[in-house]
Design a protein that fits this description.
The protein has about 140 residues and is of the alpha/beta class. The chain has four helices and five strands. Strand 4 and strand 5 form a beta hairpin.
Length: about 140
């Protein structure tokens, strides 16, 4: 039987659009990340999260980002480099009132300059919010 907390975490992995066998890379890990979320994603995909030095083509990037971490635009360029053409970047930021909180406007300003579009936001734990970024469509009709 699955405990309620486990079910919640698995549903969070699913809400992030993460499917079994997807390749998930984690950038910006630090002591403050949500370990329950990380574990749930690893259990859901059946594989460990890859670190920022991975050479594989990535389906989903989890970018843990806090105020003071540097230039978000530069980090997004780096996160996007190994991403599959239809891959997703989730920018995980501390919620309002938490140490390291990032203003949503900071994300909104960085996104267009790196060819991404912001599509949704989710609460992914007690202290973190996730912002979904996808490559802008380049199709020409």
């Amino acid at each position: 039987m699955v405990a309620a907390g486990d079910a919640d975490q698995h549903s969070v992995a699913e809400r992030l659009g993460i499917k079994p066998d997807m390749v998930v890379q984690e950038i910006g890990w630090d002591e403050d990340v949500d370990d329950d979320l990380r574990t749930a994603i690893e259990e859901h995909t059946g594989a460990e999260l890859l670190d920022e030095d991975a050479d594989e083509v990535i389906d989903v990037v989890l970018l843990w980002w806090r105020d003071g971490d540097g230039d978000l635009g530069d980090a997004l360029v780096d996160a996007r480099a190994p991403l599959d053409d239809e891959g997703v970047v989730w920018v995980l930021t501390p919620k309002t009132g938490e140490a390291g909180h990032v203003e949503p406007s900071d994300i909104a300003e960085a996104v267009p300059t790196v060819g991404l579009s912001q599509t949704s936001n989710l609460s992914v734990g007690d202290g973190w919010t996730a912002t979904r970024l996808v490559p802008r469509s380049t199709s020409r009709r």
